[in-house]
């Protein structure tokens, strides 16, 4: 038995910290489809709009605080006697601020900036501007270090290795509809790994066990079971 635990988290993990998505019921943000502020094409077409969108998200994330689910996962990672791999689709840093280490951000992070010309990364200011020059090449092509629709998520090789080193796959607060993350549970099943979902409501995916409820409740309860109290 390998003993590792692979945790995939999504927006439901941070919802109770006040980080709601910008997608309203009509799918719009300031009368724009969210995809129009979260694609490479959108950035090329209207970089000011895209920067404004992520400046708002960065401000919101900075004001948020880790909730009991973030802290419980940090505790699990610190106290479990086998590796705990925390892979998140979220772009906030609440897991780290809750005490977690080595979080794998497959969709990037709001706290980082990326040069669209040379690929250099650096700590993002709270407010980014399209005129900001890259610290390395000087080109004013600064963009958020976020994986947009149509781009390849980060760290896929590391994620594959982590999954193969685990005996348990746990999906927390994610809808299971955005690929490639949506395929991780299927990959886990094909490897003979037990699967579990912790979510506000069941996503409808195939899991060996599903627990429904607020992340701040079901995640700490599950971690307490794993750690024996």
Automatic annotation (TrEMBL):
Keyword Transferase appears in the UniProt entry: yes
Keyword terms, alphabetized: Cytoplasm, Metal-binding, NAD, Transferase, Zinc
Record field: catalytic activity: N(6)-acetyl-L-lysyl-[protein] + NAD(+) + H2O = 2''-O-acetyl-ADP-D-ribose + nicotinamide + L-lysyl-[protein]; N(6)-succinyl-L-lysyl-[protein] + NAD(+) + H2O = 2''-O-succinyl-ADP-D-ribose + nicotinamide + L-lysyl-[protein]
Annotated ranges, domain Deacetylase sirtuin-type: 1-229
UniProt cofactor note: Binds 1 zinc ion per subunit.
Pfam families, sorted: SIR2
Entries under SUPFAM superfamilies matching the protein: DHS-like NAD/FAD-binding domain
One CC-aspect GO term: cytoplasm
Subcellular location: Cytoplasm
Main subcellular localisation: cytoplasm
Positions contributing to NAD(+) binding: 10-29, 89-92, 173-175, 215
Cofactor(s), names only, from the UniProt record: Zn(2+)
GO molecular function terms noted in the UniProt entry: histone deacetylase activity, NAD-dependent; NAD+ binding; protein-malonyllysine demalonylase activity; protein-succinyllysine desuccinylase activity; zinc ion binding
EC number: 2.3.1.286
Residues engaged in binding Zn(2+): 115, 118, 134, 137
UniProt binding sites for substrate: 54, 57
Active site residues according to the UniProt entry: 107
KW Cytoplasm (keyword) present: yes
Coiled-coil regions listed in the entry: none
HAMAP family from the UniProt entry: Sirtuin_ClassIII
Family: Belongs to the sirtuin family. Class III subfamily.
Role according to the record: NAD-dependent lysine deacetylase and desuccinylase that specifically removes acetyl and succinyl groups on target proteins. Modulates the activities of several proteins which are inactive in their acylated form.
Record remark: domains: 2 residues (Tyr-54 and Arg-57) present in a large hydrophobic pocket are probably involved in substrate specificity. They are important for desuccinylation activity, but dispensable for deacetylation activity.
Full protein name: NAD-dependent protein deacylase
Organism name: Celeribacter persicus
Taxon lineage: Bacteria, Pseudomonadati, Pseudomonadota, Alphaproteobacteria, Rhodobacterales
The gene coding this protein: cobB
